[in-house]
Amino acid sequence: MRPSLMNVTVVWDWVRERRWWTKALIAAPLGLALLLGCFVLARAMQYRRDAQVAVADFAPEEAHVIVRATNARGHWERLQATEFWKIVRTRMLRDAAVRRELNALMQALEAPTLDDLDDRRWVERNGVSEERILRFAGRDVMAALRMGDTPGASGFCVATQLGFWDYAFAPFASLVLDGVDVNGRKCFRVGGLTVALVGATAIVADDPALLASALKRRGRAGRTRKPVEATITFERSKVLQDARRMLRAFPAGAATVFVDAESLRRIDVGVDIEGADVCVEAKLEGMQTPGGEAPTDAVAYVPASGAGAILLNVGGDRLWAWARRVSEGPAAGDLDRMGQDLMREGLAQLVGKRFDERVVAKLRGPMSLIVGSALGEGQRTYASCAAVLRSEDPAAAEAGFRGILEEFLRGADEKVVEIRSRSVYGHTVWALDYGAGDPNKWSDYLRPCWVAYKDALILANNLDFLAAVLASATTQTDAMVTEEFYRVAEARADRLGLNHMLREGGVASGFLYGAALREGLEGFWPILADKLTDNDQTRQRLRAELEGEWRRQGRKFTAQDVHREFLSALKEKVAQTETSLRGRARVLDYVRWAAFQVTAEEGGLGFKAALELK
Questions:
Q1: What are the strands, taking DSSP E only, across 342-455?
Q2: Quick one: three-class SS letters along 168-235?
Q3: What's the distance, CA 500 to chain centroid?
Q4: What is the mean pLDDT of residues 21-30?
Q5: Any residues with CB less than 8 A from the CB of 157 and at least 6 apart, and which?
Q6: Which residue among 79, 283, 382, 460 is least crowded, i.e. fewest CB within 10 A of its CB?
Q7: Is 99 within 8 Å of 91 (Cβ atoms)?
Q8: Which residues face 280 on adjacent strands?
Q9: Which residues pair with 427 in a beta bridge?
Q10: What is the mean pLDDT of residues 259-270?
Q11: What residues contact residue 407 under an 8 Å CB cut-off, 6+ apart?
């Protein structure tokens, strides 16, 4: 007989010789273990069945915003292995300037800062560790938001798939949690939340009525194609309808001028990360566009040193109509009101000069924007832009535009600006001339210049950049699309599904090269810092603070003392603003390129965008 069998026999004989109560004490834990094993086995079989239920099916019918993810832990682990995450985690978030600005932004939003999330003691104190989050939301998860008439009058509902051990002992929840009835189903109260357990799904809501709607399980949503997908429904929500109107206002209306924003009923969007790229894909249900496809011939106008281009299927006449609406109509918000203040007086003067008849009426056809930079004062680069405005009669459009500027200049008190022409690659280019010295250095970034070229009126803000555009258009120099960096980016965009980027078939599309875009901002930091900081409001506050501090200290001061200290403090404040602006732009140092495309689809428009880090 083998030793193992002999050992069992000996144990069994020993048990048989014990008294009954000893046998009972021995049998009780064995019986409990057997019952527990049978219970766990039965629950495992049930879990295999219940785990097949799509968590997204529990989205309440009243929800306006629904976010869902499938296998969140798996995607999170995949994300952490991507080149994108490595760049963000090991480089971008360790950049002092970027980190400082992100911390300030998160504080303003009353959210945990990056420093908080990196502090183990803070994480343990607030219970937001990665493992804790993944325990409850690491499988399939759905979050729904019902918007009220005001942002504060909203309700939320979250559904998540339970882990096996949570599921196995879920039947005993009633022993430790207070029960509550929701439409005949037994649920539980946890603080101010109501919790329902349905199979392997836990549903939590802050409103029992919203939970009751979720328990009806209307339809089958299925599993998501992207790691994270969201649906936003604008109907039945005053807050979201107001937000949709912002797409027509300032400044978003300028970017969405090629679509009818009010026709948007619903957005289905998915986000994924591949390699060093983040990809966004959306279906804009109901959204219409007034034009057809955007032409692509303007791509040849982008110089090799350019930062990119945006192709649209609508013309400058639609942009003019939007500007008129913003300046004359009711403001949709603070930004829209600011746009009104900026544009009202200028547009009123243009209307008085019959700009719409002399220029806009002659602009018929799609518009393109070419982005780049030019070298200016102090060897700094300044971002530049050229608008290619299609016209059936570009010479007449140019003459009308020039005539209006001449009328403005004749009415000026001092004649400090002249319009002069020059020949650039065989074409007559017109530009404002600020005279000797250009004391304000406006020629670097605010020098309107234009040319009638082929079927378009091309307007730019920098003469050197306009010359570069003409050089590319007339094949005197290479275009951006022939450069190695663009060909590599284009091939990558194709693999990501952006096969209409600056190509035929798109309603709108665009490409921006990060390095050139970042370089073009260098000259603007001192100018922007000065404009944002040195104003009447800041000057009055700063002077009052200085005088108040000196009074508290009991110091005697003269007007000259205050003026001297004031100028020093103002200079320091401008420098701080410039540092902050540069810090925010540091994010662009990690962007290789960004691109988007909009295409016509059945029932609406399709949108795809991608961004690659370096």
A1: 367-375, 381-390, 418-424, 427-433, 449-453
A2: HCHHHHHHCCEEEEECCEEEEEECCEEEEEECCEEEEECCHHHHHHHCCCCCCCCCCCCCEEEEEECC
A3: 21
A4: 64
A5: 58, 59, 60, 63, 143, 144, 146, 203, 204, 205, 206, 207, 210, 211, 214
A6: 79
A7: no
A8: 271, 609
A9: 424
A10: 90
A11: 353
Q: At 310, phi and psi to the nearest 5?
A: -130, 125
Query: Which amino acid, residue 61?
Result: E
What residues does 386 pair with on adjacent strands?
Answer: 370, 460
Q: Which of 189, 224, 222 is closest to 207 using CA atoms?
A: 189
Highest mean pLDDT among 83-87, 237-241, 411-415, 438-442: 83-87
> Which residues make beta-bridge pairs with 142?
68, 159
DSSP 466-501: HHHHHHHHTTSS-BGGGSHHHHHHHHHHHHTT-TTT
Helices in 51-172 by DSSP H: which ranges? 72-80, 83-87, 96-108, 114-118, 120-126, 130-137, 164-168
Q: Is the dihedral of CA 22, 25, 31, 33 positive or negative?
A: negative
Contact 286, 267 (CB under 8 A): no
**Residue for token pair 């000797």:** 436
**Separation in Å, CA 491 to CA 148, 223, 224, 496, 609:** 45, 30, 27, 9, 14
Burial class (CB in 10 A: 0-12, 13-18, 19+), 350: buried
More confident residue, 296 or 558: 296
SS3 134: helix
Asked if 142 and 156 count as a contact pair (C-beta separation under 8 A), the reply is: no
Longest distance between any two alpha carbons in the chain, whole Å:
122
Question: What is the Cα 550 distance to its own chain's centre?
Answer: 45
| DSSP code string of 12-25 | HHHHHTS-HHHHHH
Closest by alpha carbon to 370, among 302, 317, 314? 302
Q: Residue holding tokens 């902050």?
A: 580
* Res. 280: pLDDT tops 90: yes
Q: How many residues does the chain have?
A: 614
Give me the long-range contacts of 495-502 (CB less than 8 A, separation at least 24). Answer: 496/274, 496/277, 496/279, 496/608, 496/610, 497/279, 497/281, 497/608, 498/595, 498/596, 498/597, 498/608, 498/609, 498/610, 500/597, 500/599, 501/595, 501/596, 501/597, 502/296, 502/299, 502/309, 502/311
Phi, psi of 417 (to 5 degrees): -130, 140
Range from 118-127, 260-269, 275-284, 555-564 carrying the lowest mean pLDDT: 555-564
Q: Report CA 415 to chain centroid distance, whole Å.
A: 45
Per-residue confidence (pLDDT) for residue 612, from 0 to 100 = 94
Give 3-state DSSP helix, strand, coil % of the chain, rounded to 5: 50, 25, 30
Tokens representing residue 261 in the block: 């924003």
**pTM across the whole model:** 0.84
Asked if residues 219 and 164 have their Cβ atoms less than 8 Å apart, the reply is: no
CA–CA separation, 443 and 581 (whole Å)? 23
User: Token pair for residue 13?
Assistant: 């004989």
SS3 state of residue 520: coil
Residue 441 DSSP code = -
**pLDDT of 572-586, one tens digit each?**
888 888 888 888 888
